[in-house]
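#onboarding

Welcome to the new folks! Below is a worked example of what a typical request in this channel looks like: someone posts a single protein sequence, and someone else replies with the predicted structure as tokens. Don't worry about understanding the tokens yet, we'll cover that in week two.

Example request:
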Amino acid sequence: MPRPPHFSPSVSVIPGAVYSSQAERMRAWKGELYPLHVGDTWLSPAEGCRMEDLRAADHPELHRYAPIQGLPSLIDAIVERTRARTGVATEREDVLVTTGATGGLGAIMGALLAPGDEVLLLAPYWPLVAGIVASFHGVPVAVPFLDVRGPEELLAAVRAKAGPRTVALYVNTPNNPTGKVLPRAWVEALAEEARRQGWWLIGDEVYEDYVYVGEHVSTRALAPERTFSAYSFSKAYGMAGNRCGHVVGPTEAMGHLRKVSTHSFYATPTAAQVVATRVLGSVGDAWVANASARYREVGNEAARRLGVPPPEGSTFLFLDVSAHLDARGLPSFMETCAERGLLLSPGPSFGPFPHHVRLCFTCVPPEVALRGVDVLAGLLSPRRPVSR
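Example response:
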């Protein structure tokens, strides 16, 4: 007799909504909306690099499948860019074009993980990564580092969470959601620990272009033999809807990633790859320079209004609101925000942070974002639990 339908236990525990469950309250709000919960940009892509700029007559293969590894022209541009930025010898076989960094990280996890294998995630982490690990029947293990003050403390935190099933360490810098840029000494310590322990390194570098304090340190540049670096045209060039990113990793491992990608998303949309190829040059560099300056300005102003340190990189602020919670905790605070038209991301989406919220200051035009920031600032002052 057939068994009743059932679902994977690994998938069943993944949250369905990773950012917020306040959409219903937002729909009831009659005033201006401040949807600061999803990481995106109000800026359109560079001129000449938008979907409207493509004509099938100019690109006869536009509506056909692209090669599973990626368009040769795009791969060549990525190789050149990677060599210049990291100083690491990089060949075409080291690159896989993916459906955003999300698809790239999925291909990495699918290639690396056996059921029950553990991946250490420096936390707070990009929220989808824990679900991606679980989707491939791995175990995400959070390694909180908010209070870490140096590489020795960071290594102690990592070692405390490592175990015999640990196979990889995930490092996201510049960090989503904190806006922190990991110092070189920290990344060097992590790379050396991974080499000592025989772990893979997964470098989430989608915000590499958006560093306002310090420098971006490429994980792959420090341990190329064991590192997969994931990148995103979504974050770098305002192309989130295109679903295009890429992974660069060790030659001998990339064939396994291509097996996973072929049997999941098969190939990245052709049109997205055409505009990605166009943007990897002077037009994209100019767009990033403008975006970075504008992001820095609005991020610094948002931090000033909230009375917190400015972001070092990325497009986020991560706020501890514990002093403003009542007995009902963070859900009640989130409801209060939603009732005022403000949508934020709850801290537990990013790891064990039940008293934090994340704010994206680039997903709507600056004047709108800052009005939303003012709403939040009003809720956080005076320093007492917010009443509803």
